[in-house]
Design goal:
Elements lengths: L1 H27 L3 E7 L3 H12 L5 E8 L7 H14 L6 E3 L46 H6 L3 H5 L15 H10 L3 E6 L3 H9 L7 E7 L43 H4 L2 H8 L5 E4 L1 H4 L6 H8 L5 H15 L6 H4 L4 H13 L11 E10 L59 E3 L6 E9 L12 H11 L32 E7 L3 H12 L5 E8 L10 H10 L7 E3 L30 H5 L39 H8 L9 E5 L4 H7 L2 H4 L2 E7 L24 H4 L2 H8 L5 E4 L1 H7 L3 H10 L4 H19 L7 H5 L1 H9 L7 E9 L11 E3 L5 E8 L2 H13 L10 H9 L2
Parallel strand pairs: 1-2, 1-4, 2-3, 4-5, 5-6, 6-9, 10-11, 10-13, 11-12, 13-14, 14-15, 15-18
Antiparallel strand pairs: 7-8, 7-9, 16-17, 16-18
Helix pairs in contact: 2-12, 2-14, 6-7, 7-9, 16-28, 20-23, 25-26, 25-29
InterPro entries: Inosine/uridine_hydrolase_dom, Ribo_hydro-like
Organism: Acacia crassicarpa
GO molecular function, one term: hydrolase activity, hydrolyzing N-glycosyl compounds
Length: 880
Amino acid sequence: MLFPRRSFCVAVITAMAALVAASSSAVEGSPRRILWDSDIDTDDFFGFLYLMKLNRSEFELQAITISANAWTNAGHAVNQVYDLLYMMGRDDIAVGVGGEGGILENGSILPNVGGYLPVIDQGMSTGGSCRYRQAIPVGAGGRLDIDANYGLRKAFLPQGKRGYNPLQQPTAQQVLIEKISEGPITVFMTGTHTNLGIFLMSNPHLKKNIEHIYIMGGGVRSSNPTGCCPKNSSSSCVPQQCGDRGNIFTDYHANPYAEFNIFGDPFAAYQVIHSRIPITLVPLDATNTIPINEAFFDEFEKSQDTYEAQYCFQSLKMARDTWFDDHFYTSYFMWDSFMSGIAVSIMRNSQNHDGENEFAEMEYVNITVITSNKPYGINDGSNPNFDGKKAPKFNLKIGGIHSGHVQRGLRDPLCFVKNGKGKCMDGYTVEANSSDSVRVLLATKAKPNQDAGSPLDREYFISFLNVLKRKQNSGLFNFTSQFPYYKEVTFKPDVQHRRPGKPVVFDMDLSAGDFLSLFYLLKVPYEVIDLKAIIVSPNGWANAATVDVVYDLLHMMGRDDIPVGLGDVFATDSNPFTSDVDGCKYSEAIPHGSGGFLDSDTLYGLARNLPRSPRRYTAENSVKFGAPRDTEHPELRQPLAMEVWESIVPTIKQGSKITVLTNGPLTNLAKVVSDKNLSCHIQEVYIVGGHISENDNDKGNLFSVASNQYAEFNMFLDPLAAKTVFESGVNITLIPLGIQREASSSFSTMLRWLRATEETPEAVFAKRLLSRLYRLKQTHQRYQHMDTFLGEILGAIASADGHSSVDAKTEVKPLRVKAGGSKSSDGTIVVDEEQGKPVQILKYVDAERYYKLYSQRLGDKNQTAKLGSFNEQTRKWRHP
C-alpha cells in the first residue's frame, strides 16, 4: 500500500518541480528588476548610467531612492536625478527622497522616515545631529561640489518636466515599498544604508521579494594606499591614513577602520547586512585595486561619443583638476560604478553561486558591522538606543554588541590614542567567525585586462568605456543641444546717464523671505539704491549650492552685473576640525526635510521655473587664489564673500558709504566689521533678526531647540558673529522678530494686494511663492513657521525706502547678545544697561502700507524682468 502512495507523491513532486521550472524559466525570460539606493555622488551616476545603457531585456532599472545623509543634499540630489533620467529618456523610473516620518522613543518606526539622520539619532524631526555626516566636507571638495557636480549639472544636463514639489514628491520609503511589493527585485546600494535599513525593520514581510543586495562599501582586509610616504622619503614624512582599513580621510585620527558608506549609518548597515538576504559586498579591498590611472583617463577622453559619456568624463576631469594634491591617479578609484559592473556580470551568470564574473575575484567571508565600541553595557551619553531608557530601543540586548560607546563625531576624546591611530571602530566591516557574523560574497581584487596590448590595465575599464560610448540606449541631448537656437546672453542695465542712489550690500542666507526681499531691492529705482553686491551665507536656511538660484533670479531681472560672494559654511565659533569639516552645533536646528533645507534648496519646488542664468557656481579655481593648479576656466571661479567686499569698496564714490542689509546669520558681516579697512566704509546696518522678549510668554522662534525659548534663528545660527557685530560700533537698526510677526500676520492680505497689482513676471513669481507657503502652512504642521519668511521682507523695505514709507517708529535700547557656548541661551538678546550697546530698534510699522508697498513695487513696469520664466526662455531658444 505504501508504494502507490509513494508513486503518487513522486508524481506530485515531479509536477511541482516542472511548475517551478516553468516559473523560473518565465522569470529568467524577463529582465532583472533593479532598485538603486544612492547618495548621487559623482561615481554613483557613473554606475547607474552604465546600468541604464545595458540591454533592458536583461536589466531594468525600476527606481532610484536617494540616500539623504551622505555626500549630497536631498533637494539638489533629487533634481539632478530627474535631469539625468530626462537626458536618458527614462522619465518612467521612479525617484524617492526624504519623508517626514519619525521614530518614537520606544523604537516604533512611523511611516515615511526620511533618512536624513542615522537611525540611532532619528527622532520625530528631520533636523538633528550630524554625528557621522560631519566627516564629509561641506564646502568645496565636499557637498557643495557634489550638489552642483562641480558646476556641470546646470551647464550640461537638460531640464525636463519632473522636479521636486513639496508634499507631492514620492518619499524614499514609498518607492521602496511600492517597487519591492511588486515582485522579485535586486537592490544596489552605493550610499549610507539608512533607507533600506529602515525599510527592512518596518517591513519584514516584504524582504522575501529582495533576491539579492549588492553593496559598495566597507573595508574588510583593505589597506589604504593613500597618505603614504614615498619610498626613500625623509624621516620628516609622517604617514597619514596609509594602511588603514577605512577611507575616512577627515577622521582617520579617531576612526581608521570605517568606509564612508557604512560609517554614515553603522546601525542601519548592520540591519541590511544581517537581514539574511544574500549579500555581495564590493569593499575597499576591491576598489583600492582599480584606481583611475592616467591611461584610463586618456582613453576616456577619446571615448566621448554619447552625452552620458561626455557628462561622466567632464565630471571626472573636474574632480581631477580640483583634487587637493598631486596624487589624483593613485587616490581616486572606481568605487560605485565598479560595483555596478560586478553586479550585472554576476547576475548574467546567476546559476554560478561562487559569484564568478568578468571583473573581480570573489570569495565568501564571514563579517559583521561594528555599531558600538567595547566595553559593552556602558551608559556614557553617547548611545541613544540605550542611554536613559528602562528598555533599549528596538528590543536590543542589554550588554549586547550595540550597547557600547558610539562615536560622537570627529573630536570624540574616547576615540583618540596618544601618538597612535584612533581606536573607534564604528562602521567597520570586520571579518569574524562569531555567532553574530554573516556569510557574504566579497569582491577582493579587480581582474587585470586579458588583452596585454591594451593601454588599459583592468578588465572593467574596457567594459565601462565601451558601454558608455555605445549608441544603444544613449542620451537624447544635453542642455544646449536640445535647443536649435540656444544662445548665451547676459543682461546689464544701462545706467550711463543715471545718478546712482545709496550703495547697498545684501547679505542673505537663501531663505524664501530673502528671495522675496531681493525682488524688492531690484525693483527700487537705481536713483534710490545702487545694489552693489549680494553676499550669501550658506550656514543658514539653504545649502551653499543654492547660490545658483540667486544667479537665476538676477538673470531674470536683467542684473547679471551684480557680483555674488559665497560666505563661510561654518559658524564663527565652530572652531572647525579642519577648514572643510566640522559639527553642526547650530545648523542642526534647521530641518533637513519639509520647511527646511529640502524646500529652500529647491525654493519650494519653484526654482526650476526661473530663467537659467549663464552664471552659476563652478568649482573652477586658480593658483592665484590658493588652488594647487589652474583649472581649464579659472575665470569662472566662484568669488568668496570677502573678495567681493574688497572688490566693491573701490567703486564707492567719494563721500558715500555702504548700507548693509542682513537677512541671515551674521557670519560674513562679523568678518567685515572686524576689518577696519572695510568697516570704515559702512554707513549703517539693517539686521533682520533677533528677539527682544517683553515677558516670559514672549518666546523666540527656535521651534526645533526646546531648551532655548527666547532666541531667534538668525542670531542662534552664529551667536558669536552676532555678538561681534553688536559690539563693533557700527550703526545698527534692528528689525526684530516681534515687529516681523506683526508685519507678517496676514498672508491673505499680502496675496490680496499682489493679485490686485500689475502682473509683472516678478509679481507673478512672488505671488506663486507666497501662495505656496500659505497653502503649505494651512496643510501640514511642518510648515507652521512660514510666517517668518513673510516678515523678512520688512528689512528690504525699511533699508531701501526708509522708515516713513511704512510709517515706522523706532526706539533705542542697549542690547547684548549671549554667546557663551550654551545652546539653551546662545543667540538670546537682552537689554543690558551696563554692558549693552545702543541699537535702534524698529518697534512699529503700518502692516497694510507694508503689504501695499511691496505689491505695488513688484507690479511697477519699471526695472521689470527681462525674462519671465524658464519656459519663456526655452521658447526663444526653439525659434530664430
